[in-house]
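Researcher: Sequence recovery benchmark, item below. Answer with residues only.
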């Protein structure tokens, strides 16, 4: 019998033993919502039967992984290929054999790093298969409901990885909300952001909010603090939380002009 369960609304996996809340604590929090049809659960076996993983090459060293048909909040994971070891940025719920084979064919994973709790999903299974650490900012520790041996908390403003890559804590959406800054994917630097920064469908605006689905803004002082942090960061390209959320060339300019609308 499967001893885990996965929330169909957000993709969070909860242990069946121990604390068994009736509602997913992520969806029942003020940043998400329990769907009107009620709380429903699935597991990896059912996901393997009903879904596949679509892999898309974004450039020679960056691949997008997402579930098809769309599952939970349509989150995607991004695979970064680097000489010092590959990084998976964020996680999707489904981990199946074709996905494992694809990632192993590219050299496996040295680490999985997270933007925030809406991607923790089946992270323990992923870390077990690839025998790698899960980097999570300490400020989000309370949202780790299914904690395995691979979780490594980091703290402070930044965590240096390798090949010039850095995890940077931005806050806002969650206190531990972070980005991965990569200097070598584009001429001016690339930011993988999850929904620390949310790229609007028209790609003419980027928002930063406490809750996106519930339309809860951040306090003005938080927006001012985040704008200062963005100003110091060199980047021209940004890849967001879902398919098609890619901005090439003018990402920093767009984020700065977007933030100016708030302050
Ligand atoms: Zn949920
Ligand atoms: Zn989120």
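Model:
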């Amino acid at each position: 019998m499967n001893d885990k369960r996965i929330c169909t609304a957000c993709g969070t996996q909860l242990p069946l033993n121990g604390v068994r809340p009736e509602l997913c604590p992520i969806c029942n929090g003020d940043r998400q919502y329990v769907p009107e049809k009620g709380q429903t659960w699935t597991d990896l076996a059912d996901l393997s039967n009903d879904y596949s993983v679509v892999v898309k090459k974004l450039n020679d060293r960056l691949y997008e992984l997402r579930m098809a048909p769309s599952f939970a909040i349509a989150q995607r994971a991004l695979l970064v290929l680097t000489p010092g070891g590959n990084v998976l940025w964020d996680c999707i719920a489904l981990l199946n054999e074709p996905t494992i084979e694809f990632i192993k064919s590219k050299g496996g994973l040295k680490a999985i790093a997270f933007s925030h709790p809406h991607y923790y999903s089946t992270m323990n299974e992923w870390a077990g298969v690839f025998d790698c650490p899960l980097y999570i900012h300490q400020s989000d520790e309370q949202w780790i409901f299914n904690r395995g041996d691979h979780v490594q908390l980091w703290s402070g403003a930044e965590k240096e990885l390798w090949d010039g890559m850095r995890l940077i804590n931005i806050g806002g959406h969650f206190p531990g909300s972070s980005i991965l800054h990569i200097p070598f994917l584009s001429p001016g630097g690339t930011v993988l952001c999850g929904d620390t920064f949310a790229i609007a469908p028209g790609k003419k605006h980027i928002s930063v909010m406490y809750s996106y689905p519930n339309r809860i803004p951040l306090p003005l002082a938080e927006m001012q603090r985040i704008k200062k942090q963005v100003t110091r960061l060199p980047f021209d390209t940004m890849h967001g939380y879902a398919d098609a959320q890619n901005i090439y060339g003018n990402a920093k300019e767009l984020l700065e002009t977007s933030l100016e609308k708030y302050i």
